[in-house]
Amino acid sequence: MVEWITADGLTDYDAAVAFMEARVAAIHDGRADEAIWLVEHPPLYTAGTSARDGDLLDARFPVHATGRGGQYTYHGPGQRIVYVMLDLNRRGRDVRAFVGKLEAWVIASLAEFGVTGVIRDGRVGVWVSRPDKAPLPDGSPRDDKIAAIGVKLRRWVSFHGIAINVEPDLSHYGGIVPCGISGHGATSLVDLGLPVGMPDLDLALRRQFGTIFGGSRS
Fold first, then answer.
1. Which of 35, 179, 181, 189 is catalytic?
2. Helix, strand or coil for residue 123?
3. Helices (H), ranges, 63-191
4. pLDDT tens digits for range 49-63
5. Strand 63-65 relative to strand 44-47: parallel, antiparallel, unpaired?
6. CB contact at 8 A, 183 and 116
7. Residue 78 catalytic?
8. Alpha helix (H) ranges present in 175-215?
9. What is the pLDDT of residues 191-217, one digit of tens each?
């Protein structure tokens, strides 16, 4: 069984990490169900285990070192953070397959709003093709990132997870090189012209979770 938890307001990042640490330990020990925790954070940057110092361009918001995979990313209001605490001891100890399921979950949820999310070789996260924007200097098509993925495992229980842009301030990405990738930008559901709110995305995530992972409860 998977418990779904939705936080009200903005959640302090350090408090979120402490909550996840405790919940992951309880899941591993059989004292708690798996959980999906939906939150929003105040504006901040996080640095994953592969973050490069040069990719922090302007530390205009607090910077948090974190043990998840990946590089620098931004979190802030209008972005749905999906903290995924699942037990891979029971779901299969295959990290690549697990990340693939997270990507498929995001893509299926975005599809409910007519958005085609894509995966690009060598680039983490979920992207949206932007033929409406000028191509890159080398002539390649422009993509904008709509969702970031970065997970950590402890004794094969996952935490951290996914960040999906609903209506964040996209200018806040200017303080970092997001995920170490230059040239491409960031987008959101509202930036794409869709009148989608956080509750709409949350419902789509819940509907699609069972299709991809199976097992859910309120």
1. 179
2. strand
3. 88-91, 95-111
4. 888 889 899 999 999
5. parallel
6. no
7. no
8. 198-212
9. 999 999 999 999 999 999 999 997 555
